[in-house]
Hints:
Blueprint: H1 2-11, H2 18-35, H3 41-56, H4 64-74, H5 82-113, E1 119-123, H6 128-139, E2 143-149, H7 156-166, E3 171-174, H8 179-182, E4 188-191, E5 195-196, E6 202-205, H9 208-217, E7 222-225, H10 254-257, E8 270-273, E9 280-283, E10 286-288, H11 293-300
Parallel strand pairs: 1-2, 1-4, 2-3, 4-7, 7-9
Antiparallel strand pairs: 5-6, 6-8, 9-10
Helix pairs in contact: 1-2, 2-3, 2-4, 2-5, 3-4, 3-5, 4-5, 5-6
Bound molecules: 1,5-di-O-phosphono-alpha-D-ribofuranose.
1,5-di-O-phosphono-alpha-D-ribofuranose binds near residues 18, 20 and 191.
Amino acid sequence: MVLEDTARRIRTMEIRGAGRIARAAAEALRDHAAALQCTNLEEFRQEMHRAATILTETRPTAVSLPNAVRFVISRMDASDSAEEARTTLMESADEFISRSHQAVDMIAEYGSRAIPEDSVIMTHCNSEVAVATAVKAWEKGRVREAFATEVRPRNQGYITAKALGDAGIPTNFIVDSAARYFMRDIDVVITGADAVTGAGAVVNKIGTSQIALAAHEARVPFLVTTETYKFAPGTLLGDRIPIEERPPGEVMGDDITAGMPNVRVRNPAFDVTPAAYVDMIVTEAGAIPPGMAYVIIRDYLGWKPDVWQKNFLIDHKE
Ligand code: RI2
């Protein structure tokens, strides 16, 4: 029940944000394992793999989700009994959740140092780690003002504007299409990420790449804040990050579209910002140029070129 409920809440975006959905999935796997009345190891493993699939199929783009699920379930494969597998899995889930929280704090600290004194910052969508970085920089007296975009169609910018305002930061709330207009006033753009490819391209909320382009044109540094578990090992095998396209009803009411038979509403939730428009990626492993994405995948996601394959259960290095 907890499992299906978490899957539903991730799908409907009641739980959203790449880091939060990863932790919610880890928690759901842990609680599912705890509640499972099963003493047969093989049955236990099969059921947990089924649960993992239900969770990873909820949203296709955020790589944090499959990476979290793999982290949580991979270690149980070495267990000799269902009980051992259950304990290992539950410990792994707790470890993932605690490392994830620590990573946010570390990124906020490193990212805040990268923000110049007296900065006006701009952010897009609602990223836990980008907001944490902005607030940390504000507490250090490095931020003067913030701009938060609206983020049509789901309006996650409301959450960001409220969080920044509640932290005391004078915050300007703007429609997405005003980003370039205000870019001349901005000292640094900070966003989160749903996925980072081996080539250092950043997949994030739709509209991010336009803002990156405007920042590039205006010579404004573009910072991405992201935990290492949002890097995508599969991209080193040539896999592409699927871009989720959400229901048209999020953009335009079905009653309106019904009267426009030749109009098709498109609603991609994410876009890809090429590495060339990203100045720095701030992770818990340090602030790196996008060209070092491969190193993160190799050193933090257990990349083993000779054995890794699409469905191989990766594990974070100790
Ligand atoms: P954190 C969100 O996706 C946004 O694109 C945001 O930038 C990204 O996840 C990362 O969020 P959605 O779930 O992990 O709103 O930094 O579609 O919170």
